[in-house]
Amino acid sequence: MKQTGKRTCKLIHGILLMVGILGCMILTGCAATPERVLQKTALTAVSDQTKNYKCESEITMNAQVGNKNLDTGVSMVAELIEKPEYSGHIEMTMNYGPKGKEKNDYYIVKENDWTMMYSRKDNKWIKQLVTMDDLSGELEDIGIYNYSSFLGYQKALTSLSMTEENLDGVDCYKIKGLVDLSQISDQANGILADMGVENTGLDFSTLSTVKMCYWIQKDTYYPIKITMDMKDLMQDIMEMSIKGTRAQGQIKINEAGMEMTFHDFGSVTEIVLPEECKDALLQ
């Protein structure tokens, strides 16, 4: 009887030990790390809620050229519906520095079986028929970076660190990292083009890395704010482009980067074309 009692005690002790070990494994496995949070964030790209949203972005660059200070950039405000069919309204402002600013307005809507893009320039509306392939190119050309495109940067992030922060009343994971642009050269060239740098076959592995930061909402894992610090990269590119010229050593990049925010997920149900552009000429 005593032997049976001892075996029973040992069995219970063993079970408790196994439960304790398993519990530690589960708790450790569920602990939030930058890698796990980013993995969960990547899964939100297939959510119906993230297929329509509102967003803002701003690309800025400030440079000291001799004794002159130049500011250039692109800002955007958009309402986008990615599924079931792409539609959206985008307002953009281009800052050309001394040459002034230019404002553009775009609507993307479905008309019968066709996708139409309306654009306003110099207070005149025009429209053009676009396929999905054409649309992707058009959106890249005018500097539209959607939800999914920014999730693509995650695969190139290194040197990750994470803290927690309340951003405008929203509890977030704040993840910092360095972007290896050689892994996402096409996306990098698109952003650089919006900053006035033409694609010259840059070898990104020889250039400075970009500092990137995600603010990811804790309860949904949606990235609600993303920033990129490209100051060092732009300085490298500038020095390469003016090497051996009289301008060498005369240009200093004070600031260069991008900020994008996403919000109102699931709230954009329809893009309404205003009356003023319904008589737009077909190009």
Might you state the CATH topology name? Answer: outer membrane lipoprotein receptor (LolB), chain A
Biggest sheet overview = 12 strands, mixed
The domain tally reads: 1
**Percentage of residues in strands:** 35-45%
CATH architecture: Clam
Q: Specify the overall morphology.
A: globular
User: First CA to last CA: what distance?
Assistant: 95 Å
Helix and strand pattern: HHEEEEEEHHEEHEEHEE
- Side by side, the strands of the main sheet go 7-8-9-10-11-1-2-3-4-5-6-12
Any idea of the CATH class?
Answer: Mainly Beta
- The secondary-structure class comes to alpha+beta
Mean pLDDT: 77
Helix content: 25-40%
Our count of helices gives 6
Describe what you observe in this structure.
With 283 residues, the protein is an alpha+beta fold. The chain has one domain (34-282): outer membrane lipoprotein receptor (LolB), chain A, CATH 2.50.20. 27% of the residues lie in helices and 40% in strands. The protein has six helices and twelve strands. It has a twelve-stranded mixed sheet. The radius of gyration is 25 Å and the shape is globular.
Topology:
Blueprint: H1 2-30, H2 34-43, E1 52-65, E2 68-81, E3 87-95, E4 101-111, E5 114-121, E6 124-130, H3 132-141, H4 147-151, E7 157-167, E8 170-179, H5 185-194, E9 210-217, E10 223-229, H6 231-242, E11 251-263, E12 281-282
Key descriptive features of the protein:
283 residues, alpha+beta, outer membrane lipoprotein receptor (LolB), chain A, 12-stranded mixed β-sheet, 6 helices, 12 strands, disordered N terminus
Short description:
The chain is α+β, with helices and mostly antiparallel strands and 283 residues long. It has one domain (34-282): outer membrane lipoprotein receptor (LolB), chain A (Clam), CATH 2.50.20.20. The protein is built from six helices and twelve strands.
